[in-house]
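Hey, can you fold this one?
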Amino acid sequence: MRLRCVRQSPVFEKFFAGTRSENGFFPFLHFVAFLCVAMRGLASSIFLVLFCGVSQAEENTSPADATVSSAVASEGLVASPRIETKTLESSHFVLHYDARLEQTTPDYAAQALLALEAARRNLQTLLGVVANQSIAVFLDLEDAYSQEVEARFGFATIAFYDGAMHLRAPRGAGVELYALLQHEYFHAVFREKVGADQPFWLNEGLAELFERSTLQHPGLNESELRELEEAVRSGRWIPLPRLERNFVGLREDEIRLAYLESSVAAIWVQEHVGGGAMPKLFEALAAAKQRSDAVDVALRAVLGLDTAGIDQALRDTFFARLEAVSPQ
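Sure. Predicted structure:
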């Protein structure tokens, strides 16, 4: 899920100077994918047909859309209210979108599918995991999206995943759309592999890192690290076990802090899980999900620490940073 109050576009830097995971989230493999998303008109349409298996755009009453609508209904999902919707498919995604998006970008849907297929390739390269099932994606303009969100949540969001990807679509099919689709695609894969959204801090943290890395700005910048240091120093740090289930009940300033903590915790996991072992962690989480202590069982099995242990390791890291800059 993406909450509106924490949406931003800073210039991100690496987490620590000289830290770059050799097999993790920080490769420079997104240049081609980014070019694809920047394509316009005929070129993007040709690329979609040749390489992504995209079918011709149809109205949402088409047989293919009826099949997807049935699947969505069977999952208890609610299609976003729209005046006019269209559907476009690729090999791995079924996109339902507000027709008004084509007023500013005629090939909006084609570019969105390019971004989704790029997200699939990126995540397979980075973690060796992809969604096995075709994913339904709903792109709404703010008016229609807000109606649905008001009916379902008590807070503002710009995207969420509930078995399908729902996004408040930006007017232009550019970098913002590309990054947001990457983020929500990760949530779809996490749910499929783990069978749940927990630990929420790991789910959101990895999704945030995946989104940032697609923009070639991995990790946290120095300002964000100082914000985390201050949270530790002042006692505002939110214990990681509090972020295991969800972020519900947090104040707006706490939600931003929760995202930062989740991101730095995900970096810690990525650095300690070992090369190519993230699928192993997903499998451990899935295998233990029937237990009340499922998250801690899986974390101990793969990382040797439970949630509280990772939380303490992170605090120790920031205390060490504070001591390093404190006057003697």
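Residues 2-325 form one domain. Let me know if you want another pass with a different chain boundary.
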